[in-house]
């Protein structure tokens, strides 16, 4: 396979050097064909997602295909505007001149996609890379083989491999891909693997985007509307069976309203999935046995307030609420990434500090409160990728908002125009006039130093 990867990369470099991907009409045509192919295969895509981990069709449409289609339409419609050189005010030091920022593609991009949203998180960055004029190798997750297969069919129908190629396989293929020199790498996955990707990229000084994860806190203070908060937390936590990088990882609830919140959470779970949750058509499964066993092991020795049912034959784990787990427990040592929701009480606002300090900078944070002062305090005091006040996960839905992490939860941000900018090098160009050429900058330097120090006012 190593020789095949090398050949594909060489072919893509040769194609990029022809300049065809820099043609905006070419990029638009590819995006249009991609949109048409996804629309035509949308039912088959949903079937593939169901075959991989019983993702409900509503969730497949809501969180996978429709998000990608929206990204494609936005890119196609606004490509001319995004690609247009940006004029910036000229520096007086450069007078006379005009000064602009040109956007140019990096070249050969590698996109490594995860398994939890295997369609959307593969194609959303791909759309940005194509729109910006790059060639792309896409590595889908081998843990969602049915979705990986249909991604390959779609791309092979729309693009020729010199432009975009899909390479399937497991860890060994990812390692082979990372051994090569790329012009840009975009990775979505765990923090552990993100470090490996970053180290590989560093060998070639390749710029990267890392979309990782973290233990996302969900804070509920004593002023929150508990029924509404519970409904929105349950939706955000258990969509995709909790296998979402921006899902609430654990709840921090003021002790005075903990009992009321737990009651409201139980009620909302039953309203969402029924008393026989295993039979609910709206609840996905764990992606594989290994992930199921990892999550099941987290529940050992914990006090379960609700749920805790499981079925190994179907990788089923019910929505589960856990009471006050220890900070050094299995449940709290890493991102849960499943339908288990720890509930921890706090008394004073200052108590929240130790959780942010212990778990680092998360990808997301959620605040349920009707106290503007408390809302401001959390958003301004603590660092995290992004978040929502009085809801969960909806920050992802607006393509005008950059999406990305900070610190151990990632680097770089994308969606909409941010995706185009991410995959574009910003090249600064100064066009200098010839009709005036001030002499003091040239040696021999006769300008008194006190005037040199005044240059800062002209920059």
Number of domains: 2
In DSSP terms, counting alpha (H) and pi (I) runs of 4 or more, how many helices? Answer: 16
Could you estimate the helical fraction of the residues in percent?
A: 40-55%
Order of strands across the biggest sheet? Answer: 10-13-14-9-8-15-16
Overall geometry: globular
What is the tally of beta strands? 18
What is the CATH architecture descriptor of the largest domain? 3-Layer(aba) Sandwich
Say which CATH homologous superfamily of the largest domain is assigned: Aldehyde Dehydrogenase, Chain A, domain 1
Q: What do you see in this structure?
A:
- This protein has 459 residues and is of the alpha/beta class.
- Strand 3, helix 5 and strand 4 (135-139) form a beta-alpha-beta unit.
- The protein has 2 domains: 2-212 and 409-426, 3-Layer(aba) Sandwich (Aldehyde Dehydrogenase, Chain A, domain 1), CATH 3.40.605; 217-404, 3-Layer(aba) Sandwich (Aldehyde Dehydrogenase, Chain A, domain 2).
- The protein contains 16 helices and 18 strands.
- The protein is globular and about 80 Å long.
Structural features:
459 residues; alpha/beta; Aldehyde Dehydrogenase, Chain A, domain 1; Aldehyde Dehydrogenase, Chain A, domain 2; 2 domains; seven-stranded mixed β-sheet; six-stranded mixed β-sheet; 16 helices; 18 strands
TL;DR?
This protein has 16 helices and 18 strands.
Give me the secondary-structure topology.
Layout: H1 2-17, H2 24-40, H3 42-53, H4 57-83, E1 86-88, E2 97-105, E3 108-112, H5 120-131, E4 135-139, H6 145-158, E5 164-166, H7 171-178, E6 184-188, H8 191-202, E7 208-211, E8 217-220, H9 226-238, E9 250-254, H10 258-273, H11 289-298, E10 303-306, E11 310-311, E12 316-317, E13 320-323, H12 330-333, E14 340-346, H13 353-359, E15 364-368, H14 372-381, E16 386-389, E17 410-411, H15 417-422, E18 424-432, H16 449-452
Parallel strand pairs: 3-4, 3-6, 4-5, 6-7, 8-9, 8-15, 9-14, 13-14, 15-16
Antiparallel strand pairs: 1-2, 2-18, 7-17, 10-13, 11-12
């Amino acid at each position: 396979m190593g020789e095949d990867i090398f050949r594909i990369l060489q072919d893509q470099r040769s194609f990029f050097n022809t300049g065809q991907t820099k043609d905006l009409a070419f990029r638009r045509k590819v995006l249009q064909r991609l949109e048409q192919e996804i629309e035509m295969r949308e039912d088959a895509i949903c079937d593939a997602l169901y075959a991989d981990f019983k993702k409900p069709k509503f969730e497949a449409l809501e969180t996978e295909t429709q998000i990608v289609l929206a990204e494609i339409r936005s890119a196609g419609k606004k490509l001319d505007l995004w690609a247009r050189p940006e004029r910036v005010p000229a520096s007086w030091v450069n007078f006379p001149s005009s000064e602009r920022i040109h956007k140019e593609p990096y070249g050969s991009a590698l996109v490594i996609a995860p398994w939890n949203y295997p369609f959307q998180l593969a194609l959303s960055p791909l759309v940005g890379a194509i729109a910006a004029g790059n060639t792309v190798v896409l590595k889908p997750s081998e843990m969602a083989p049915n979705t990986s297969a249909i991604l390959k069919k779609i791309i092979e129908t729309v693009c020729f491999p010199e432009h975009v190629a899909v390479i399937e396989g497991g860890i060994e293929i990812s390692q082979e891909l990372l051994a090569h020199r790329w012009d840009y790498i975009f990775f979505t996955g765990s923090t552990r693997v993100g470090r490996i990707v970053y180290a590989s990229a560093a060998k070639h000084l390749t710029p990267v985007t890392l979309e990782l994860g973290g233990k996302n806190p969900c804070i509920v203070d004593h002023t929150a509307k508990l029924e509404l908060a519970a409904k929105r937390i349950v939706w955000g936590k258990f969509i995709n069976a909790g296998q979402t990088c921006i899902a609430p990882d654990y709840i921090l609830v003021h002790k005075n309203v903990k009992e009321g919140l737990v009651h409201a959470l139980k009620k909302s779970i039953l309203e969402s999935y029924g008393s026989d949750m295993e039979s609910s058509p709206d609840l996905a499964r764990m992606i594989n046995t290994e992930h199921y066993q990892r999550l099941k092991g987290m529940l050992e020795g914990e006090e379960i307030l609700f749920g805790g049912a499981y079925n190994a034959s179907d990788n089923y784990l019910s929505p589960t609420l856990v009471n006050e787990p220890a900070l050094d427990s299995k449940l709290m040592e890493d991102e849960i990434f499943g339908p288990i929701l720890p509930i921890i009480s706090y008394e004073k606002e200052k108590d929240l500090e130790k959780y942010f300090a212990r778990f680092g900078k998360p990808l997301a944070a959620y605040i349920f409160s009707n106290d503007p002062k408390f809302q401001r305090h959390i958003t301004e005091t603590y660092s995290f990728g992004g978040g929502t006040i009085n809801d969960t996960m909806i920050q992802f839905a607006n393509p005008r908002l950059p999406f990305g992490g900070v610190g151990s939860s990632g680097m770089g941000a994308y969606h909409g125009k941010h995706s185009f900018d991410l995959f574009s090098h910003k090249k600064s160009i100064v066009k200098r006039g010839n009709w005036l050429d001030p002499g003091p900058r040239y040696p021999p330097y006769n300008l008194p130093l006190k005037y040199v120090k005044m240059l800062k006012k002209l920059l």
